[in-house]
Structure formats: C-alpha cells, structure tokens
Known about the structure:
By secondary structure, the protein is of the alpha/beta class.
Amino acid sequence: MNANNGLTRRDFLKKSGAGAAAFAFPFIIPASALGAAGRPAPGNRITMGCIGVGSQGTGNMMSFLGFEDVQVLAVCDADAGSRDYGNSEYRGIAPAKVAVEEHYAEQKASGEYKGCQGTQDFREILARDDIDAVMIAAPDHWHAIMTIEAAKSSKDIFCQKPYSLTIAEGRASVEAVKRYGRVLQCGSQRRSSAKCRFSCELVRNGRIGKLHTVKVGLPPGYANRRDSEPTTAIPMPVPPSLDYDMWLGPAPLAPYNIHRCHFTFRWILDYAIGYVSDWGAHYCDMAHWGMGADLTGPVEIEGKGEFPTDGSLWNAAKTFNVNCTYADGVKMIIGSDLGFWGVRFEGTDGWVDLEGGTNPPSLASSVIGPDEIHLYPSGDHYRIFLDCVKTRGEPSAPPEVAHRSASACSLANIAMQLDRKVKWNPEKERFVGDPEADRLLSRAAREPWRI
C-alpha cells in the first residue's frame, strides 16, 4: 500500500517486466496459489515484514497473521533461532518462519507453503519494494534507527514501545516519519483500550474535580527468565545462531554474556532504562492521555534512583521515585514504591485508576455526554494500524504522542542519574541552562548506525 508511488501492486508487477524477474525476493503470492478462497485480492492486502521476533515480536507477528488482509512476507532477527531467551523458549528467525509458513500452508490445497524470507539483516526487508509495512520489536536501542530507515524506505511502521531510547533519537524519528509521509503506530496498546479510554475521559471531563496528582506505579527490581543472575559481565562464547555485532548495532562494543541479550537487555543502560521505560512507557502514556499532556512534557523533574554499585551487568535503576511537574502545576509521580502497578489520577473531588477503581464509586457508572471530550475510539490496536495504512489516517498511538511518553521516562532517568533537580523546556526539548543534562539527551553510536 505504498501511497506515494501512485501505482497499485498489480500495476507495479505489470510494469516491472524483466527487472521483476531478476529481483532476489519473491513477490506476494496470489490468493489462488495459496488456496485462499474469499481472501482479499493480493493488490488489496498489506504486505509486512517483521523485524525482531523474540517474545513480544512473535506475539505481534501472530496478531497480524490473524488478519486476512495481511500477508507476512519476511521475518528478521539477529538470532537465527535459539533457546537463549530464557526458560528454554525457542525464539528467533527459525520458529517465526515456521509459524508464518504453517499459517499459510493451512490455506493451500497442497498444505505446503515456503514463501517467507528469513534474514538477520533488517535492511534486506527494507530493500524489498513488495513490502508495505514493517513491525519493529527489536531491543529499545534499535527502535529509532529502524524506524527512520523504514520511513526512508517508504514503509509504514508498527513500532513496539518505548518509542526510542533517547530524546534526540525520538525527535529524529518523529521528523523522519513526518518527512516521508508514513503511518506509524506505537505498540502502546492501552491507547486502544476502552477501559483506559473511559478512565482518561472521566479525568478530562472533570469528574474528579481539578486534577492535581497522577501516580504512576511501576515494579521494582529486575525480572529474569533464566536460572542464574549475572554479577559481572563475564565473557562467554557467542552462540553460533546469533549475529552479535548486529544485535549490538549502535551500542558500544561489549563482550557477549547470555544475560546481556534478549529478554534481559532491558536492565542494561546501553540498551534500555529498566522498568522506568519497560512499563513506564505504557503508564506514562496513559498519564499523559488523562492529563491532556500528549504533546508536551514536564517542566521540572527531580527524583532518586537506586543504581547497582557492585559492578553487576544489570545497571538500570532497581528502585526509584521521581516527581515530574508540568506547566499547569499537575505533578506526575513515577515510583517503584507506590504500592501498586498502574496509574491513579487524583483530583479535588476524587480519584480514578486505569483498572476501573473510582472514588466515589459512582464515577464508574458516569456517562460521557455527546458534547463532552471523547478520546480516540477504542478498537483492536493492530487493526487500527492496518486501517490507517489504507486510509492514511492517524492511528491511536502516533509518533509525536509516543515520543512524548518515552521522553517522560528518559527525563526521569536523567534526573536520577544526575541526582538533582532539572528544568526542562518541552517546546525546545532542551534543559534550561544545563549543558551537563543536555549531554544526556543523546548517545554516541557505532558506525554505520549514527542518526
């Protein structure tokens, strides 16, 4: 569905001639070849490549496979297929490719299908003119780079949260999506939840009076899917299935250790910022939705974080409490010590949370009137993306909104690392009179992955 080229896929195939025959990758398989009677015609389908097929990526991929107007043509992962993800989970290219081909084989009279490409280099997927959209679920430090390159390649994008690792990367990613006219849906699924939308509408319509505090409760410590935990970055042999240099990408060179990669990457500051963004990207996003702060950020941030000091491989904050103050005086508290996971909006006349809890209880049966504020309609988060690919409309978690949610997490982490109060200008996206803090807005990147 490449809207900018003015051609349907059918036109493209007709006009490609001998050049198409020489192309290394297969074009979309006709519905008749798949034995898919009643499926949308090939020219009406959205062709996809899935980049990053670990646990969340595989879940996203399977969701997209469930739509008849989607054809998954390729899967990509730095891991060709291994059990290094934890709990003996077998993830990576091999099982993802099998899942795709078995799905389409069930639709063929012969019961066979071998049309899914597998690659360890995402650039091979972006080079394909027969792919309309990509799903990105690589580690956080890859999100912005892959999004920018996908936008340049005229691909629409479903990118898993958090939107980016740094604020500078996030801004560059937003501008690239805009510049190249792409549709992007961030994997902040609560944006498409009826329950979350209703809670935020109660707040936005004044049901709890004047909002003064939003509490974002996150889990403390680290989660681990393996039997052991690292104490130091003891070098280990790189598994033969893993393209470790590609996995590192823009991040600094570092010796391989099983606890560095796959699920547990999120506890290492070179690749993520721990639970502050792992769950914080979801819940700060909801906080912003209820606050009406989708396109801005805090003006003052102050907090404390407990960072490991024993030289352990995992070095993101284990516990934390950060106060973010917005221009209207509302305070957002991000804490691992709040006694709950989720978001609670507190106002002068009561409170509501994302799980349906309200005080007074009568708020739960409140009706949002036709002339009041109604937020983005709920629906399947993946379906919303697909529909917007076709209509070129704006999805429920678009780039600027996703960037501001991720920025709140990054600002919290910067304040904790500096261990002092910082002042932020959300319009200029710079700290106020603070060059030391400004240096933390971006990170050095290895060639050729500089943005």
